[in-house]
Design goal:
Elements lengths: L2 H32 L6 H8 L3 H7 L3 H21 L7 H10 L14 H11 L4 H23 L2 H29 L4 H13 L8
Helix pairs in contact: 1-2, 1-4, 2-3, 4-5, 4-7, 5-9, 7-8, 8-9
Amino acid sequence: MDPSTGMSVRRRDRQRDDTRHDLALAAFELATRHGLGGVRVPDIAAAAGVSTRTFNNYFASREAAIVWPAACHAIGVADQFRGRPADEPIGESLVESVTALYGPGAGQQLPPDWLRRFRALVAAEPALHGEYLKATAAAQEALGDAIAERIGGGQSGAFRAHVIAGMVAGAERAAVMHWMRHNDGTLADAVRTAVRQAVAGLEGGTR
């Protein structure tokens, strides 16, 4: 393949990601300011500097746009896990994979305090709950698949992998909710502590 063709494809992919990111943040900011009921798709498109048709090419609804950054964040855990050393204990890989998304440099494209404001918006807007649950379920499924690739063991291994993913996802959610209520220390530390507790004892034959 012509190298210039590959560069053009990557450039188009980046442009699509940038447009999706702009639309998602525009939807989030408008919903935070006016409430979800006070936001229309044309408003979001205008705030992002694109047409309503462009919005519809990227998202099926306002709710999907608002939740998209959270979905990307959550799916990133599986990508981080696949990038960990194959001989690293699975518990340590999971702790590092989750907390990497909360450390310095993580989420640099998102506004400061985005996570806290996003959680508050989801809590205040029941219409967002379905999209948010879909996003977290997809992320948990992706992490379960990644763990299954590591541990093998066929159907029984896959079952164990998805149970582990559920434990990790639950621990992360609990840590975030605790930190939002108490703001005790850093969010990264809270997540690390919770996930480490969830995976304690995993090394009994699982790597």
